Amino acid sequence: MSWDPQILVFACNWCSYGGADAAGVSRFQYPPDVQIVRVMCSGRVDPGFVLRAFNKGADGVLVTGCHLGDCHYQDGNYKAEKRVEMLYTLLGQLGIQSERLGLEWISAAEGQRFANVITDFVGKIRRLGPANGGEGP
Amino acid sequence: MMEAVRPFDEVMDEVAKEGGESLSLCYQCGLCSGTCPWGTVRDFNLRKMLRMVQLGLVEESDDIWLCSTCKACVDRCPRGVELIDVIGSMRRMLVGGGMIPQMQRSAVSNMVQEGNPWGNPAEERMDWAEGLDVKIYERDMDWLLFVGCAPSYDPRNQKVAKALVEVLNKAGVSFGVLGAEERCCGDSARRIGDEQAFGTMVERNVAKFEEMGVERVVAISPHTFHTLKNDYGEFGSELEIVHHTQLLAELVDEGKLVPGRLEKKVTYHDPCYLGRHNGVYEEPRKVLESIPGLELVEMERSRESSLCCGGGGGRFWTETVAEERFSNLRLEEALGTGAEILVTCCPFCLLNFEDSSKGIARDDSTYILDVAEVLVKSL
Amino acid sequence: MSASSVLVIGGGIAGIQASLDLANAGAHVYLIEKAPFLGGRMAQLFKTFPTNDCSTCIEAPLIVEAHRHSNIDVLVDSEVMTVAGKAGDFKVKVLKKPKYVNDNCTSCGDCFDACPEAVPNEFDVGLKLRKAIYLPFPQAVPSTYTIDRDLCLNKGHLIACEKCLEACEVENCIDFEMKAEMLDLDVVSIIVACGGSVLDPRSLENYGYGKFENVITNMEFERLVSASGPTEGELIELEGMESPKRITFVLCAGSRDVNFQGYCSRVCCMNSIKEALLAKEHLKDVEITLLYMDIRSFGKGFEEYYNRAKEMGIKFVRGKASDVTKEEEHLVVRVENTEEGKIEDMETDMVVLAPPLLPAEHIGDLAKVLDIKLDDDGFFKMEQVNVLPLRGTKEGIFLCGVATGPKDIADSVAEASGAASGALSYAEKREHPIVDIPEKGGEGEPRIGVFVCHCGNNIAGVVDVEDVAGYAGELPNVVHSENTLFACADSTIEDIINTIREKDLNRIIVAACSPKTHGDLFMDALIEAGINPYLFEMSNIRNQCSWVHADEPERATEKSKTLIRMSVARANLAEPLIAETSSVTKSALIVGGGIAGLTAALDLNAQGIDVTLIEKQEELGGRLRELHKLSPEGIEASKLLTQKMKDLLKSNVNVMTSATLDDVKGYVGNFQVTIKSLEGVTTKDFGPIILAIGSDLYEPTEFGYEDYENVITNLELEKMMEEGPIEGKTISFIQCVGARNEEYPGCSRYCCETGIHQAAQVAEDNKVNFLYKDMRTFGKGAEENYKIASEKGVRFFRWTEQPEFDGNEVKVQDVFSDMTLALPTDLLVLSVAMRPNQETVEKLVEVLKVPLSEEGFLMEKHVKLGPVESSIAGVYLAGCVSGPKRLDESVSSASGAAAKAAALLSKDEILVSPIVAFVREDNCRWCARCSEVCPYSAIDIVEIEGGKVAWVNGAMCTGCGACVVECPTKAMILKGFKDEQIEAQIDAMMGELA
């Protein structure tokens, strides 16, 4: 494959970032096509960030956080969920396949799950091809 | 799950009564199976056999009679199971129930009748000493030399008795024998599990010792040494017992025995009943090392890890198929050291090695010797 | 220093942890270590089970913290000579041996190269040579070299060897005239953390150690696979120097053995499994076999680790090896596979023995000096093995770690904190170092320093760190870039501090592990260098890169560059942040009045702390009320509980029974807790909260528990035994009910030992069958009790297939006889697993947001190094709340939690995180959306000239950032996570860097 997707992952400090670390500790391998940006809470993820990423040429964006009900800040992940839902609609209107945006809940103990989620998402983005329709940026 | 079997608890109760209570400690680690020499020559699993005893589900087989009581397993058992006592208790139960194999039965019966397991005439017991300076024991003598059945009757072992007597005389030791009055020490009876026969032999011997005023005994066979030292006390006997190599070591130490030069490379085999059973490892070596020109090389498995010749536990009186003889393996180990002489100090070991060596071509007919014989050679 | 001083004997992980807990609570510590370095045995390990964390990585920050802590005086090369006095007033004489090298040492190593005298080194268990002048290992703290004067040729004669002095380029560094010092210390209490030694494997004659070079021990294996070891991590045979194709581990090599040590050495099963996994990592095709009697994988995550090893193809053969011999080209291990009944002579290339831990060398001398007793195994004797496991037999002296018996790092650490708690009760005077957080760094252009870490081989083995450092050096604003072996090492921290000062750096990026691992350490370094600690970024190129892209080194290298580029983007927009301070409510809440809660309460009370204990039941005591006699000594549970209750009555702990936790608001140091009790609803303020809610027991559905009258649980048996003797029955015990299965794979830890103890009791007058999967009797006295139970006639049956019960007979496939057995049974006892206290846990998750581990117990901060802390600051864990524990383990962890709480309470104010929301008033229109979404009610309206604006209460804000997203005018920002910063990160990820 001459094209490698560029995928942005938001991970929350308490859960999914911990899960990513746990994946590392247990050496659960996943594709290197993702870059993780740490935020304190998935509720910090402004829809503007997602749009900016796609605007700059990202092929996929994955928002991750704590399982519903477990958010370290009470209900930040519920907010994230609503915002992502709104984004699915918006992306469609902007001509970006909504499947390029993902939302997953991963706890700090779920190293294997983190690796699986990333692997699946990368696979999905690869199947969709480059976001701008061409050969990649 | 398959058809299930109920364990027979009564068996363990009996085993415990007969002195095998330590079997309940066994946590089935399998160390004994790996240690037991029988596992190297046939498909024998010591741990599993004991498991079946724990469950009371023992099947008829000759497995219980295989043990030569070499004690390698007991020394290593991490739980402190006295395997020999457990097997002994099983044998006692079988003997009590009349289920004793033929060869062992004969050996014991001969022992009681004629005073030796071969059944040779008792009157002929002293014949080996004809023409030799061997006195009958008298009260004021230092030592009673307990010759034993093999040195008395077996031609090969008679040479050992003769060699020992020569050495003791040379050293000016005051000793005597019981002569034709001597009877088997009974060791084999106990190992086979016939406590009644054993008791008979012991009582007879203890009475004789008392009658003769015996206080100190030197034995040729480690088996005699062992039983006189460890078992006879149960029957009220209070004797000071040494093995012949211990007395020889003392004589060398005291300068009463001055070995001459003997330029030979030798290796020494620790008999189970001298070594593991009674902790006597150094005296035979001291004697050998006192001989100028003698080079002693150790086998890989020496002292506590010495490989049994297969003669203990009453097995000497049974037939062991050639492929299953431990002495064959041991002889190979001895040959592997490059030694010219394999030295030991037990009549069973001696005969077993002689037997094993029959299949091997060698030029020196004196390949296997007793410590006493080596000393004689040097004098 | 006006604070009370405590003596800690032993500078291994336990001693270090105890010292930190004492120091963080404001006490002063003398940390005495007889070796030239801190770290003990843990420093020699490569990885730790069950997380496979790099041992040095997790220990180093604690070592460095202890070394740097102004409340801790570290004395290496030192030994305690005499102790006089009594609790509260001990007079100790310590002999400090000279290093003959002073603090000017730069650890350059020139002297080492010059020294002519070499000897096998202790750190690598003799596998490598050291010189007379040496540093035990590169990351040793202190990093000053030492001269072993016994080996040194310079004996003070006229013509002496001074090659080291000649080679040393530092002026006034090596000083042969240094003298030993005898120090007189006044301390209020003493903690013994002296660790242990290891059985000399040469005594295991049938295993051939010393005869055959390729027979090695666990520790030698650790050194071989360590990147800092004699072969730089290459796993090779000592004879032949090739990679082994087959490795055989021999467990219980000298333990559980009447001929050596009768006890279980507790750590070797897991240690060996870990090493087997490491071997598989190093050599993909290597065949590994472990020879065992019982696999003791009893701790949190241990069973899953064991399962993983099996899945990776590591073979487990149940049998105790009898002999190791040598053929021409390989070794042979003789063992019976007792599950198959076959005796095998296994060919192998390397044999790794697992010999037991023994009492520390010269422990008898130390016992005499301290005037405390040793137990039957020669370890320090605990005052009472169940509820006073951390007390020595003399008042004022506390014990922890391997000093009292073999145990792993997690248990040692929990005990160390617990011992600190005990020692603190004598420390009346406390003093905290004043920490000044610098504000400097925000002026002028960013001047970025990048430090790319090798992490030994962990990063450098995959990522081309030199390339990455080179790349970073070319990025805008980066004025310094280097790569380093271990960024967290003491010497590297010094290096970073110096570089900051020399090059006037005002932004630091460390590309290494996770910020959660060492973030605090690096931030402290910035503080020491005089710049604001929030001008710091970490690029996670290990956990989130090299470790997870191990087969794609090129892409991992590129990814590392991208991650650093993203960090640079963030750093460019970082600002100094000043933490707010918050007061600490000087009152502790303990939730749960069982033995753990009671222990924690009494510990804190002994320090004069105000404690409230709430218990949901009417009576205190928890499960201890339902127990009859306790393993291993058979002490009556009621007796111990009565004693605790007496102590409680004498104390001023506020006890509320029939009281439950209703809600918790606030944050560390300032919790507002609502309690529901018979008196109604009350709200009280607390500083720390200790959760000691215990556990439930599994309600079995198997074995006809619900149908047959004669099937009971082990707890019900306790009650029966308490009510009266049981006689004339046949009782069968079945272990692992509700544990070690598909749904709940973990081991429940307490049940083998308890089951054995129960079996031995009823065996007096009953026939007893004991059906087990693995026998896990690892606690003090437990293995001995297993033997006693055997002596009493308990019959043991090992099973792999679940047994069956029809009301009359237990049917079991007996592994050892390979027969299906029917065991007539009058009473079937099921040893049931512990389960989380479902209802209470749900409540805790609701009000505290505590994370849970896989089986639903509360998750600790770090399973090895943070066993008594939750990931919520100020909330600590005591007892079975975090997983199944034996009684003394609950007690130790409770004392450990008390120590953490005490540290918090010893401070008048704590620093609150400055990562909070902030209003740029010029942009604010007070639409109030921020205030509406804030879950913490931290946003208020304030009047300013010109109108109303929002205002954030920094102490109540938790930094979630929800308000920032909601703000339509971008008036709200989140300090440390500004929109601009995140946007810059996104741009940088896509290749744009301003």
Explain this structure to me?
The complex is a heterotrimer of chains A (137), B (379) and C (994). Chain A is built from 4 helices and 4 strands, in the order βαβαβαβα. With 137 residues, chain A is α/β, with parallel strands linked by helices. A 4-stranded parallel beta sheet of chain A has the order 2-1-3-4, sandwiched between helices. Chain B is of the alpha/beta class and 379 residues long. In chain B, 44% of the residues lie in helices and 7% in strands. By secondary structure, chain C is α/β, with parallel strands linked by helices. Helices cover 27% and strands 26% of the residues of chain C. Chain C is built from 24 helices and 56 strands. In chain C, strand 44 and strand 45 form a beta hairpin. In chain C, helix 1 runs parallel beside helix 9 and helix 14 runs antiparallel to helix 24. Chains A and C meet through helix 1, strand 2, helix 2 and helix 3 of A and helix 13, helix 14, helix 23 and helix 24 of C.
